[in-house]
Amino acid sequence: MFVHKLAGMGRTQLLPFLVYAFTSLKLVAYYGNYMLLLTKLNQFVDNFLGSTGAGVGNLIAEGDVKRIQQVFWELSSLRFLIASFLTFALYHLTDPFITVWLGEEYVLPRSVLVIILTNFFISQFRGTNDQFIFGYGLFHDTWAAVATLAITVAVALAGGFLWGLPGVLLGDVASSLTVVSVWKPYLLYKEGFGMPVMSYWKNIFLYLLLAVLSWGLTDVVLCFLPLPEPSQGYGMWMVYALVSSLVFLLILCGGFYCCSAGMRSLVRRFRRR
Predict the structure, then answer these.
(1) How many CA atoms lie within 13 A of 75 on its CB side?
(2) Residue 50's domain spans which residues?
(3) pTM above 0.85, yes or no
(4) Residue 142, SS3?
(5) Would you list the DSSP string of 88-100?
(6) Extended strands (E) in 36-110
(7) I want to staple 188 with a disulfide (CB 3.0 to 4.6 A). Which of 105, 106, 192, 243 is the partner?
(8) For the chain, how many structural domains are there in total?
């Protein structure tokens, strides 16, 4: 666990230095404005869902495989829904908010925002995997922590040299898409659940399809609504944020309830309470 925590801290602390090394101190400050918003959202979601960790540990101790899988997919569907909703909202609202808050000159290129949100999305929906890995005590893959840090630094150095700020930020995405998104689920299913990992990927690809379709349908709906320009002031931004987020949330929740057994199980659990 010490090695995993140390490598995670290294990734977080090295990134601003790499951004500065290949860009400028001004871009580090601009990047910090974006990360300030994302960090606060990350903390909010972690505080909201992190309390389920103790329940996961008790559930694993009981050894009921069927119930473990049921709860895993309930939490996974909830995490994925929250991650999709926040990513959609941030994609549409971050640049206008920065414009209203600080000015248009502080807005980073759209490609940078996409890379930042890709890493944010992965960090959100991996939360359930991390909880169950902690519950099973699967920390012996110390090579994975070292590999994550090495991939981050290597890709950031190469990407920074070739593309500047977007290339540096690709380092985090590269390690998240490989070790975090591929190896960690495999480890959990193989040594935790004792099941083939293909069942995991079938559900994840279904969730991704639902999120993409909901996003596209929401963008079509928003084109026909007489919404104000969100960068014209805080009031306009709030109206746009409320309407666009609500439309996407309704479409996304409807899709998840119809297509995700985990979400239906979670809704039934809340109804019983």
Answers:
(1) 25
(2) 2-272
(3) yes
(4) helix
(5) HHHHHHHHHHHHH
(6) none
(7) 192
(8) 1
